[in-house]
Structures are given as C-alpha cells and as structure tokens.
Amino acid sequence: MTERKSALRKEMLAARAAMGVDVRAAADAEIFRRLTALPAYLDARTVFLYVSVGDEPDTRALIEDALARGKRVCVPLCERMGVMRACRITGEADLVHGKYGIPEPAPDCPTVPSDEIDLIVAPCVCCDRGGYRLGYGGGFYDRWLAMASAPSVVLCYAALLVDAVPREPHDRRADLVVTDAGIVTI
Fold first, then answer.
1. Which of 161, 94, 175, 81 is nearest to 128 (CA)?
2. Furthest-apart CA pair in the chain: how many Å?
3. pLDDT tens string for the chain (186 positions)?
4. Structural domain of residue 162, as residue ranges?
5. With 0-12 CB in 10 A as exposed, 13-18 as middle and 19+ as buried, what is 103?
6. Residue 152 and residue 86: Cα distance in Å, rounded?
7. Which of 115, 98, 96, 97 is nearest to 106 (CA)?
C-alpha cells in the first residue's frame, strides 16, 4: 500500500508542478469562489485553514477573506511528526517559517481547541470523488480529522481528482471536495 501511495504521490506532484502558473491562478480563483459561497464556510465562526506553499491551491486569499468577514482563523502548528494543533492568527504577520518549510503560527499565537472549530480546510496532493485524500505522507491531517468534529473540505485541482486513492484503515475522508471545476459532495 505504501508503495502505491508513494507512486501516486510522485505522479500527482509532477502533474501539479507541470500546471502553468496562469492555469493554477485561474483554478485558485475558482476554488476560492466556490469555497466562499458554501453555507458551511459562510456560517463558520472559526475556520481551520492550511497555509499553502509552492504549487498547492492558494489559501492566502481565503485566510484574508475569513479575517475580513470577522471569522476566527486557525492554522496548523506542526509539533512533531504526525501531530499538529490549531493556533489562531490575526493576519499574515503572525506567521513564521516552520520546521517543515511551511509557514506556521508564531509561538505566541493561542491554541484553539478542536471542538471550537466550525470548518476544516485541508490540503492534498490529490483526492478522489469519495473524499479520500492523498497527503504528503506524514499523517497530520488524518489524525486531525479523526479527532475533530467539524465538517472538512479538501481543496484539489480538478486535474488531480483521481478515480480512487489507495487507502488504509487510518485514512479519513473529507465531507466535501472543492475543485476549480465544481464541488464533489460526499
């Protein structure tokens, strides 16, 4: 199973990297438009968003939008392999360079308990129509989704939506997949 996941991860990361900057920017705008129109997003008081890096679907505009709407915004702080917690930020100035090369909340950002989060927005390398995502292999989001009660949304470029992601018993599915081509309801 690990070999199948690794092979798919490598293939999808290469496909994502091959997408042109203009193609990704247009797709990011569509993903933003679709997510910000969801009732789950509009009604959420506290959102847990990943901070995008590289060629991932861009979440910077989502973070700014949520803050502008007066939502409490939390981003992940990776404490050790596979373990993260949600910390509140009030803007991009609260982010520092993290140990995994991902912007993360500064040490003085307060932790927000998972039961106070109304919506989780998770990243993926790719995902399937069943809501199962293939991440980067650290298990951070599978562990988080297993303990959280809030609905979860995965952001995925439509070109990286696959028929089936290899899955193991510990893998968790999302409630919705938002792509640039539409919304996959699970």
1. 161
2. 44
3. 689 999 999 999 999 999 999 999 999 999 999 999 999 999 999 999 999 999 999 999 999 999 999 999 999 998 887 789 999 999 999 999 987 788 999 999 999 999 999 999 999 999 999 999 999 988 899 889 898 999 999 999 999 999 999 998 889 999 999 999 999 988
4. 2-185
5. middle
6. 14
7. 96
What does the block give as tokens for 58? Answer: 């861009």
Structural domain tally of the chain?
1
Q: What angle do CA 78, 157, 103 make, to 5 degrees?
A: 25
* Closest to 125 in 3D by CA, of 19, 8, 3: 8
Query: Could you tell me the CATH number of the domain that includes residue 51?
Result: 3.40.50.10420
CA atoms within 13 A on the CB side of 163: 0
Q: Helix or strand or coil: residue 44?
A: coil
pTM: 0.95
